[in-house]
Amino acid sequence: xxxxxxxxxxxxxxxxxxxxxxxxxxxxxxxxxxxxxxxxxxxxxxxxxxxxxxxxxxxxxxxxxxxxxxxxxxxxxxxxxxxxxxxxxxxxxxxxxxxxxxxxxxxxxxxxxxxxxxxxxxxxxxxxxxxxxxxxxxxxxxxxxxxxxxxxxxxxxxxxxxxxxxxxxxxxxxxxxxxxxxxxxxxxxxxxxxxxxxxxxxxxxxxxxxxxxxxxxxxxxxxxxxxxxxxxxxxxxxxxxxxxxxxxxxxxxxxxxxxxxxxxxxxxxxxxxxxxxxxxxxxxxxxxxxxxxxxxxxxxxxxxxxxxxxxxxxx
Length: 315
What we know:
45% of the residues lie in helices and 17% in strands. The chain is of the alpha/beta class. The protein is elongated and about 105 Å long.
């Protein structure tokens, strides 16, 4: 599902990123920022998902860092949040490079002058100060926000959207940051169909979760895929939409179509029962005989008497 997100967002649905090319990365980012009066304070942020993607490009290995931020509610400061995540990622990469260089120089120092003369680089003062050498390169960080809501995202989608600055001279001195957003309510069905994983079913279901007629149409048109939804995708659908879908805990694949049908059948049955109880009370208040009421609503006399709070003569 993770690869599917970025195949959609970056490559328009083409299967460029393969799941087997992705490896887990530590999603906890730690950096040091300056606090009051120059005090150094630790900052720790947790990303929902973060993986490293490796791909062959022109015969050389290219590393691109992709992240996904899962949202169930509209976050009105998402531009700042994601911008901070990316900045912390880059800060972490610089620190890792510095650690690597310090370790190498420490080893060289232990080995003595002979290793220095082997042609290994000695950093200049600027490289030594930053810990990041001229030939060092950062791994690009791309963060995509997935909004798991049936309503449209109405929050800011950039830093500039969060500000009231119209002076072009001021804006020219600032760098904007855009939220890369996937929101089902704002996506045409043909766009959602570009997903190849069960994220397609999740997005479609969420989009039409409050539109029973169109949800039925979507389930019918995509019946084959909705009959074989991954368990974790079914969990997301149920948690987000609270649709009442029921399935066994041990099921790895969920037949959503059947679950919805059973849910509706149960709901209709409950509706008929409530209506029968209401009708029985109304007729009894009008003086209709209990036996005739039972015959009319289609339930046993003893059952109807129970609804009405009357004694059961059979006991």
